[in-house]
């Protein structure tokens, strides 16, 4: 006995690796049991922070027309944006439905031939058949105004960032934060400064959709072959000549992706912008959501999706025209998570005849056809009524509501079982834990986790965010939202990993799944609330379900791509050493796809948070509900405003913690002590 | 070497290029003489070109040769300040490039100096004719005029009938012909070639080298040619500068490099060159021994050694090597065989 101890006692006691984390967990558990119920920060609707903001709004509303900042600056912006929107709206109304159908068809034909034209014509007609002509046109005008402004501002900034590394470094962190901000967070400050209505909605949409315009343009510019640029300079071109004759033409097809992505972002935002009284389809959707009436929102939702599909296919055809030749260096560069919506579309577009000839200019037939289409449309304006005739519409509200009711009652046992299981086993315990623990204990726990996972800086940022949330008086609701996010992310990651691994291992399954993922990623976010609402009515679980189906597609795609990106030679080497398929997966593919999987987790969290907050409309409660309440009840404006800030803080915190993990521990770094 | 700048097409004097944020400080200190690796370790700066001086005569093909990383590509870019030199003077056609204003520099690039690139640098969205006309377009030449000029140049480089093709429809060799045409179209006095053929496969490369030789004969431009391929350098270069770690280690004709390498680095380089293909009789002829018959065939001293073999084997008598009217020496079969056998025969240095 004594001899063994003597032998096995080295000078320093070797502690197993699991001791520290387990010790920390035990410590926190003990602290929780000892201090439970103390130091909680219960929600107070009348907290002074909220009241102060409400008062600020009252003051601004009173002084909107005499304070110089508003009088000489903000009000002009509002006027200008409003004018732009009116211009689009008037033009579109003047075209009437025959004119608009013809013009859209012609543009689509120019973009991608007769298939796309057919899609555009039937898409535009669908607005009429759904009985939503006017609100669709309003939405289109709002999107047009917002996208135009986004591009007018975003493309120059993007070009600048693409040309100058310093500018890129300055802009990137701003864009990072903008991209994790949930849609809701933009609305309250904009309402404060630009009042409510179409201009504020257009500005909110513009701000929300500007990051991809900047980011992808910068990417496109920086991808331009440096030799071509140098050759141009060596012949004595000025910077301007090089920009217009080399950079922009070579970046064109990638920049079409930027336009496309900007439009897609704008389409998801215009709907939410209805909360600050922006006109259009959002009205029906928000009304349907808040009354839990799928029948009201389904046609509007379909109209938005149709609009998204039509515009997406048109823009992707434009992008495809250039890239079919293959002079874009990193073709996949722009297709990041959540931006790969058009991959399926590009494949389809490349099959059409015109695309098979590289550098094919538009043929005469295409030009004539587009001209005829536009002319016919315009000629019919005086003949046919401008507004879509009432008798041609299909009203499905009642039928849809019946179908939903049928589904709810028929599947009631199943859906209730799932809902109750998740609520009882995950949601409730976690929520109780987070809200009954002292705030300082939760903060310490988050600090410890962030430190261990990501390092000092992210940990300090997380700490700052949590303290700010506490000071803002939104602690309890933030904890509830965090619970929902945590549960949704957990389920999302499990499903995403399983499907992603399955797709990576079976090409046949992947071929089935890809188009579904592509389609899913083209759809605006809130569309996912529809099935969730139909199945689960308004409960906390509805938002979770919606965020899972919203966030799973990009996670699956990232995991699949990550595993497929493992070099074939490595897989071959492992196979030739006699690995089973399971060993290959666990010992080679998953570890090497680590970066992609961490990125998937990060994306999943950011997307889930965005959806959970929107879920406030359908019973998710907590911060999201506060934001909605802030818009509907004037006296609660402050609460909504502060809740919006709290969602941003929560988003930054979760993003930093997970993104730090992505950056920090590459396997190489982990090896070094 | 003529010292007057007017007689040279390009004069480079004490040229330095140091990359890094503290380039100027390095340049001002004694650190600049450190070996590149040591310098990088000490200051984080990279010395790409170190105190380089040379002159290129009008109409000459001047080759800069070195391995990758020796600074040759940086050097050629410094000539028109595509890369801004850290120190030193560059004159092209007598004009101080370093002092040129941005507008003047553009003028020089537009009309006097043009460049051919390793990876062609063609604009994929433009037809061949518009690529060739690009230099003229940015000068503001009207479309019809520049297309007419570009058409002429295209037939000069043997690309008749490809005007309306796009670059990616052409093979690599043809793409580089487009690059060549683009550089020629602006009718420059000086053409710079940055490893133009190293991305091409060997047969095409030989064609293109022949093309450059032909063009040089026809248009007579001053050419600065960068390469890492010794045989290319020997084939094209009237004079060759060998670069190593940013400095020129030797500058001379092919004959001088092969006959009298300046150091071990250069001799290592030229070891595999068949010397009989480069050296002339000047390097191996000797004074006639007393009583040696001097009625054999005559050859000029500039004859390449391998070309003398046929005559030597046909005649039993020593060959008289003449420099103009004067007798420079004699060479007999034994001399030739000894030389060809590769024994390290001492050659006459600096002939």
UniProtKB/TrEMBL annotation, chain A:
Keywords annotated in UniProt: Cell membrane, Membrane, Transmembrane, Transmembrane helix, Transport
Biased composition regions of type Gly residues, renumbered to the chain: 328-344
Principal cellular location given in the protein's record: membrane
Database matches in PROSITE patterns: ABC_TM1 (PS50928)
ABC transmembrane type-1 domain span: 136-315, 478-658
Protein name: ABC transporter permease subunit
GO biological process: choline transport; glycine betaine transport
